[in-house]
UniProtKB/TrEMBL annotation:
Positions with biased composition (Low complexity): 85-97
Organism ancestry: Eukaryota, Sar, Alveolata, Apicomplexa, Conoidasida
Stretches the record annotates as Disordered: 1-57, 70-105
Segments of skewed composition (Polar residues): 1-10
Annotated organism of origin: Eimeria mitis
Domain of life according to the entry: Eukaryota
Protein name: Uncharacterized protein
């Protein structure tokens, strides 16, 4: 079956790379938002208690055994290593289209073996003859190269990862987005004012999670061209993921308990990313679903800026 690949013009892959401010830039300075116990209304009612089937709190927070921050968990089965060897881009099947219309949630997706095909997880492959240029390491930590918002580059990379195969132009755009995402997110992380509240932890760790997932996915596609051994350790050291969070069982308020539980899972996943590996596909899928589609909470990753990821999760 012939695979249809949209052209660069159709996808407008280069547009997010244009300089400019987004609302994410100002959000980064205002992350100490007030917690709201209201339900998020981005999912349509339909199940018991007015929630969409598959999005009940118990089914998502307990259906998947969470990775933990214990040393043993760092070698968790299913984690995908990133090396400076050959590209791992063929890991997910490129000939299988992402499953659409999957509002049934986790059980349905697992039953059809569709995790590796889902937009939250799947990756394209490089077309024959594509040669990625090396990352320009000296520019990654250069203040002059600093850009305004990481969100534009995450958006570009999301579009590229949604393709079936990547040609040379796609890969050139991807590498440019990687360089700018590294620079922007690194400087932002070093200047961030830490606030100690569960919703701030979710917002901060949630953005870190999206940044790290995009970069590790790029490493799987680009292989040696990422030159990760020259900059990854310095980059990851700037991201503080050690939030002092209470035991969720000690929290009576439902939304606050959800924030704490999600923040702890995000922190555990980030521990794996910092080692240059991607967490198991099921955990990546679940965390993105919890961030963008779960009805509880009113954090900043629920804002319209993140609507493309909500559409990927079939919750918009």
């Amino acid at each position: 079956m012939q695979v249809h690949v949209q052209t660069e013009q159709q996808l407008h892959l280069g547009e997010p790379l244009l300089e400019g401010r987004s609302d994410l830039e100002t959000e980064d300075d205002e992350l100490g938002s007030v917690e709201t116990p209201a339900f998020q209304t981005s999912v349509q009612p339909g199940g018991p208690g007015g929630l969409t089937p598959g999005l009940e709190p118990d089914s998502w927070l307990e259906a998947v055994q969470s990775i933990t921050r214990s040393p043993e968990a760092q070698g968790v089965a299913g984690a995908s290593p990133v090396t400076d060897g050959a590209s791992n881009a063929g890991q997910a099947s490129a000939s299988s289209a992402p499953r659409q219309g999957d509002r049934g949630g986790l059980k349905d997706l697992l039953n059809v073996g569709g995790i590796q095909k889902h937009p939250y997880v799947r990756l394209p492959v490089l077309q024959k003859g594509v040669v990625p240029r090396p990352i320009c390491v000296p520019l990654l930590f250069d203040e002059i190269q600093r850009r305004f918002s990481h969100h534009a580059y995450l958006s570009t990379m999301r579009k590229i990862f949604a393709l079936e195969t990547l040609n040379q132009e796609h890969v050139d755009v991807l590498i440019d987005a990687v360089e700018r995402l590294v620079t922007t997110s690194w400087f932002q992380s070093r200047s961030k004012q830490m606030r100690f509240s569960p919703v701030f932890a979710v917002e901060t760790l949630g953005v870190y999670f999206m940044v790290f997932d995009a970069l590790v996915c790029a490493s799987q596609l680009l292989g040696e061209s990422m030159q990760s051994h020259l900059w990854w350790e310095k980059f990851t050291a700037a991201f503080n993921t050690d939030f002092k969070l209470p035991d969720p069982k000690s929290i009576a308020q439902e939304t606050r308990r959800f924030y704490v539980t999600l923040a702890r899972r995000l922190a555990a996943a980030l521990d794996i990313y910092k080692q240059g590996m991607r967490p198991p596909a099921l955990e990546v899928y679940t965390l993105k679903k919890l961030l963008f589609c779960f009805p509880l909470g009113n954090h900043r990753l629920k804002r319209p800026t993140w609507d493309p990821w909500k559409r990927d999760g079939q919750c918009l």
